[in-house]
């Protein structure tokens, strides 16, 4: 049930919010479904082997760690002062 709700929301988001043509949005969702269906089989078998809780924890760890890979380092306050002084 949740998967179908996600599909309809994705279609709505593509068509109405992002203004992608309806036919193109449908093809995008068909392509995404074709790609993800084999992944269900893989992850179900993995979940059966290692247990559901461990599978959920592993996915949660990846979700927490992934943004750290793409994060830009913050500038320190010293660097910010140097930048503002060089602009003046």
Automatic annotation (TrEMBL):
Highest taxon in the source lineage: Bacteria
InterPro entries given in the database record: MFS_trans_sf (IPR036259)
Entry keyword set: Membrane, Transmembrane, Transmembrane helix
Membrane-spanning residues: 27-46
Protein name as it appears in the record: MHS family proline/betaine transporter-like MFS transporter
Native source organism of the sequence: Bradyrhizobium daqingense
